[in-house]
Amino acid sequence: DDEHARLRVKLSKRWEQVENRLASALAKNPATQNKSYAESCVARLKIYYAALTAGLNAVRDVEDEAIHDTRIAAKRLRYLIEPLGGPRFPAVREMTARLTDLQDRLGHIHDMNVLHNRLEEAVSEAAAAHAQVGLRTALAAPGAAALKHWRRRDPVPGLIALACLTRTEAHAGHNGFMTGAWRVDGEPFLKKDMDQLGAGLVRLPVAEGASFAE
Question: What does the pLDDT look like over 161-174, one tens digit per residue?
Fold first, then answer.
């Protein structure tokens, strides 16, 4: 909480500097000259949506790298359209919610895969370390009692149980994704909403003399 309060103070002081630099850079960028924000946004929408659609179609296996790539594509598209949510484009809120849900689902699968891989490494590391402790225990205090105590402190079964849990979670998430609304045959995910948003942006009136940054 203390760090959050300090961060808000720092942001309020630095935001104006960042905003001024950003506006200046946009005004000087050849890619933004004689082009409204709406026009640039439409072009970017097509690129980000194409990446998302390609990613959705590429996901097959639970450990597919396309899961992570598609999550990033969903995040980029959501960040782009989120500021547009308002009275002029009421559908954006629902689009943002669906992209957030997709992003969270894919993120959970990816996180479970990453955790599973780390646990696999931990099993090997823990098994080797535990074996060394067992050897030292046997040499220092021969006898069944000492080894019995050593066996009870074996971390490997617990790590294996956690690894199995992460794999179960990943498969459950993957199955949910494969049967989700974005996998339905026919019209691609958010296609109609994206077309309407793009068309609406193109029709937006542009104030005379307004810069790209404005």
Answer: 999 999 999 999 99
What mean pLDDT do residues 90-97 have?
A: 93
Alpha carbons 119 and 162: distance in angstroms, whole number: 7
Q: What is the pLDDT of residue 213?
A: 44
Rounded Cα distance between 106 and 183, Å, is 13
Spatial distance between the Cα atoms of 106 and 108, rounded to a whole number of angstroms: 5
What share of the chain in percent tops pLDDT 90?
A: 45
What b/e sequence results for 2-19 when a residue is b if at least 16 CB atoms lie within 10 Å of its CB, and e otherwise? eeeeeeeeeeeeeeeeee
As a whole number of angstroms, the distance between CA 14 and CA 7 comes to: 10
**Is there a contact between 52 and 42 (Cβ–Cβ < 8 Å)?**
no
Side-chain-side CA neighbours of residue 96 (13 Å): 14
How does residue 214 score in pLDDT terms, banded at 50, 70 and 90?
Answer: very low
**What 3-state DSSP class applies to 146?**
helix
Tokens of 205: 């009136």
Helix, strand, or coil here: 210? coil
Gap between the Cα atoms of 163 and 146, Å rounded: 29
Neighbours of 20 (CB within 10 A): 11
Give the 3-state secondary structure of residue 207: coil
